[in-house]
Amino acid sequence: MLRNKNIIVGVTGSIAAYKSAFLVRLLVKAGANVKVVMTAAAAEFITPLTLSTLSKNPVLTDFKKNESGEWNNHVELGLWADAMIIAPASANTIAKMANGICDNLLAAVYLSVRCKVYVAPAMDLDMLKHPSTSDNLKRIASFGNGIINPGIGELASGLIGEGRMAEPEEIISFLEKEFTKHLPLSGKNVLVTAGPTYEAIDPVRFIGNHSSGKMGFAIAEELANQGATVSLICGPNQLTVVNKNIQRRDVTSAEELYNWCKILAKVYDIAILSAAVADFKPAKIANQKIKKTVADQSIQLVPTIDTLAELGKTKKKNQILVGFALETENEIENAKTKIKKKNLDFIVLNSLKDKGAGFKTDTNKISIIDKYNKITTFGLKNKSEVAKDIIAEILKPEK
Ligand code: CTP
Fold first, then answer.
1. pLDDT in tens, 380-389
2. 189-395: same fold as 6-180?
3. Distance between Cα 279 and ligand 1 center (Å)
């Protein structure tokens, strides 16, 4: 969520300034572009060198950039930012913010930015409790600034109470929530299945298929990028998850995949089942490796549980259920039958006949068939673009 976001970190004079080093490090790790502005008092607690090294950008402390008369343009900086976070925010800086006092670069940047500003106060408990500080905090909140409340604990003074700056990890998750709040899928729980399943024959062999899981992973990433909380149930694969809002559960067999989906069936808002689940499994799994000395070997197969069909049976009115179909013949007719049989809102059809579509590739070519039999066909695209098309279909207003 913080990837590629431009974030100004404002650091003011407080013993908690050391925590801003961790904050900057976590922001950079999350993929944000960070520029630090410090007050002169902050530079007494932590060196600009530490923060410029961690942020990979020069730290700004003064209007004056250098002796040749250049200056640090606070207006430009204000326009650059997607968010400004003042952490730690001292009682003094909070008072200045509440009253429009602009006697240092940080205050000028604060007054110039067009983005939302977040404030993480840090001070002694009595300073925080003082009516002037609480009035100032209320006032800056009324201007639309976000307040990240301080925690309770032992303070630098040795007193115990409220006033500790929120921990950098808490600030990061606060910011992540803020950035997802206005996204189209914010607050939605989405279940995604991906990859193949392996059905054991004996301790070393299995029945599987060529699915790589790439389509399902691309769907999960795109859903999370659009604000959803995603549970990704995936069969054996070589892929990694990037977005922190994806909770990944690795499974092997169709039965394990079903067991997770059954648990999540009551709570999902949207379920997209893209896994290439094995339709059959051996009736019995041999305890020992089957030896080749046995002539005329045959394996009796029984159907696996059809997770998509089971979810279709229990689907509530407000839940959206999407299936996939990989067909080699009578594609449209077979896909339409599956929509009805499995009680789907729509089905994503990919054909093995299309070059660049299907297993293992980074591209796919799909058609979406909805429950009213409306067919939309898309060109060959990168799987993350395909994922966007599928999500756009979900976000279409109900016909
Ligand atoms: N699916 C599932 N559990 C299974 C089999 C399939 O959840 N045991 C889901 C797949 O994830 C996909 C959809 O059902 O979303 C379609 O699977 P597919 O194998 O193409 O269709 P089937 O209904 O199994 O029919 P057939 O194999 O006869 O085409």
1. 999 999 999 9
2. yes
3. 7
Helices (H), the chain: 17-29, 42-45, 48-55, 74-80, 91-99, 105-112, 125-129, 131-142, 168-180, 214-225, 254-264, 307-314, 331-341, 383-395
Residue 307 near residue 271 (C-beta atoms within 8 A): no
Ligand 1, closest atom to CA 307?
7
Distance separating alpha carbons of residues 199 and 44, to the nearest angstrom? 63
Quick one: pLDDT at residue 114? 95
| Distance separating alpha carbons of residues 223 and 243, to the nearest angstrom | 10
Question: Which backbone phi and psi does 205 adopt, to 5 degrees?
Answer: -120, 155
Is the confidence at residue 85, as pLDDT, over 70?
A: yes
Q: Does the Cβ of 256 fall within 6 Å of ligand 1?
A: no
User: Residue 358 above 80 pLDDT?
Assistant: no
Residue type, 248: R
pTM for this model (two decimals)? 0.80
Domain ranges for the chain, please list them. 6-180, 189-395
Can you tell me which residue has the tokens 């100032």?
A: 136
User: CATH for 189-395?
Assistant: 3.40.50.10300
Residue nearest to atom 3 of ligand 1 (CA): 306
C-alpha to C-alpha distances, 134 to 122, 131, 151, 164, nearest whole angstrom: 13, 5, 15, 15
Asked if residues 361 and 354 have their Cβ atoms less than 8 Å apart, the reply is no
Ligand 1 atom at shortest distance from the alpha carbon of 338: 23
**Residue closest to 119 by CA, chosen among 156, 81, 97, 146:** 146
Q: Is 62's C-beta closer than 6 angstroms to any atom of ligand 1?
A: no
What does the block give as tokens for 313? 């049976």
pLDDT at 161: 87
Q: Tell me the CATH number for domain 6-180.
A: 3.40.50.1950
